Backbone:
């Protein structure tokens, strides 16, 4: 009887506690990199396959941008980054932060409902570093890093935008000019020497590492393992110290952004080279996070979301196609930076025990901006009209109910240069010529020109595709369907003028 009463009491606590939320964000992971999305994938991803079997797999999900910085802004704010008027992908000590001081963020919103919040991993939305005179450093290269006064706090840290805890890196962890960990708003172990690139691994996926300044505790092969231990420690601390308090954890990985430097225990394990090993390691990290939540007894009351900030990178796609028969963008045209589907159609998986039907699949068109409104609805938080302007609540999709119309009226996408496209149903209008990102005119072994497709309407100022009939975006219908172009361009202009989609 005592055991039954104890079990009932535990169930009552769980039922009374709002769900925890864990968002796992991969970097440069393509739609075709996961076996649960691409049956021809050459890389084992058992943990993400399992997550998909236990949750809902989205086949028409998109990063808000084709590169990392604007996508992260949009995920954290529910607002398209082009609306800021600032087009940046930061490096070194680049800043200031893209997020406006008075803008409501996802973690700040969750804090209003009593959530503990933490981010471990890559930030890449901009920070402010200061020199010995207290002046903000503007140089984004090696010169700027050498000017940092490490006795001063860093401005624009995640702890200023709703996160209680942060441990990670300012930009891309193993690509940047600053190879050092930030704890809150401080760098406890500053860099002491410059990376000697001659000592780095030699393979097609190793060339993105800038010769920046590196801290003694910064091992390029162990970055994701450090982030993992921080997230696991946070989960354990939450259960031990505040078992009734819900939490939001954002685990922002280095993987699988180049350079591909998997930890030693994963090297040679995928059978598909260093980048395949890096994807295999990323999958293992997801499994470790899931196992930790199961061991702590919180898995049943935790929503897990998994996504990627954009499509796969150029060198990894070229070399993986050539050397291993693996296509990280499959079945789409384009890669990271491109406006075509391969640049932004990405994996998105949601597990929500008791709500999401295990093994379910949806073709609903969604964006990572929608995480903002979905979390708000889930926890009963309200947000003002000047927040989450491009975010839609996905809970009707997650609950599996029948709907007469799509959640979104249309979907916007942007490139690094803030070039735009709009999608409504099967129609996709690109408001510019070409990819909007990569150069397809050069033809050599390391350029995307070898995969170029001739524009079937070369005189048109933009592009129009019917993705149902032409998922490969090979036939430009701009001149054939002028009314569709006029309608979609009108919607795009209206959205730009009104400052919102929602």
Residues:
């Amino acid at each position: 009887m005592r055991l039954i009463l104890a079990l009932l009491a535990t169930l009552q606590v769980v039922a009374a506690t709002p769900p925890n939320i864990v968002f796992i964000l991969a970097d440069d992971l393509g739609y075709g990199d996961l076996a649960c999305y691409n049956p021809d994938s050459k890389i084992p991803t058992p943990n993400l396959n399992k997550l998909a079997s236990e949750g809902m797999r989205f086949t028409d999900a998109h990063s808000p941008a084709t590169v990392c910085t604007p996508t992260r802004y949009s995920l954290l704010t529910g607002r398209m980054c082009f609306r800021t008027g600032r087009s940046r992908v930061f490096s070194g000590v680049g800043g200031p932060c893209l997020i406006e001081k008075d803008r409501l963020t996802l973690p700040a919103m969750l804090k209003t409902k009593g959530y503990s919040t933490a981010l471990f991993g890559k930030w890449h939305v901009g920070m402010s570093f200061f020199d010995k005179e207290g002046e903000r450093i503007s140089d984004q290269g090696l010169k700027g890093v050498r000017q940092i006064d490490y006795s001063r706090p860093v401005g624009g840290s995640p702890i200023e935008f709703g996160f209680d805890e942060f441990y990670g890196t300012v930009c891309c962890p193993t690509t940047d000019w600053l190879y050092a960990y930030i704890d809150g708003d401080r760098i406890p172990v500053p860099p002491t020497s410059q990376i000697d690139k001659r000592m780095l691994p030699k393979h097609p996926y190793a060339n993105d590492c800038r010769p920046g300044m590196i801290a003694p505790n910064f091992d390029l092969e162990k970055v994701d393992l450090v982030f993992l231990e921080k997230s696991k420690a946070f989960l354990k601390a939450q259960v031990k110290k505040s078992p009734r308090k819900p939490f939001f954890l954002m685990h922002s990985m280095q993987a699988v952004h180049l350079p591909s430097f998997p930890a030693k225990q994963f090297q040679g394990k995928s059978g598909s080279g260093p980048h395949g090993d890096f994807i295999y390691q990323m999958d293992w990290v997801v499994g470790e996070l899931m196992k930790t939540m199961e061991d702590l007894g919180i898995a049943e009351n935790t929503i897990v979301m998994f996504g990627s900030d954009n499509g796969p990178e150029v060198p990894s796609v070229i070399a993986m196609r050539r050397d291993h028969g693996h296509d990280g963008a499959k079945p789409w045209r384009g890669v990271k930076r491109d406006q075509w589907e391969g640049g932004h159609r990405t994996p998105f998986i949601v597990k929500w025990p008791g709500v999401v039907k295990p093994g379910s699949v949806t073709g609903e068109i969604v964006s990572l901006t929608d995480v903002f409104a979905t979390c708000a609805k889930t926890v009963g938080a309200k947000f003002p009209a000047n927040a989450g302007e491009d975010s839609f609540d996905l809970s009707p999709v997650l609950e599996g109910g029948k709907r007469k119309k799509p959640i979104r009226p249309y979907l916007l996408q942007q490139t690094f240069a803030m070039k735009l496209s709009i999608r409504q149903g099967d129609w996709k209008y690109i408001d510019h010529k070409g990819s909007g990102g990569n150069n397809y005119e050069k033809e050599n072994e390391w350029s995307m020109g070898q995969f170029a497709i001739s524009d079937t309407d070369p005189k048109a100022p933009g592009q129009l595709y019917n993705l149902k009939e032409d998922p490969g975006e090979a036939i430009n219908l701009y001149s054939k369907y002028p009314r569709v172009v006029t309608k979609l361009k009108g919607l795009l202009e209206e959205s730009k003028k009104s400052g919102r989609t929602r």
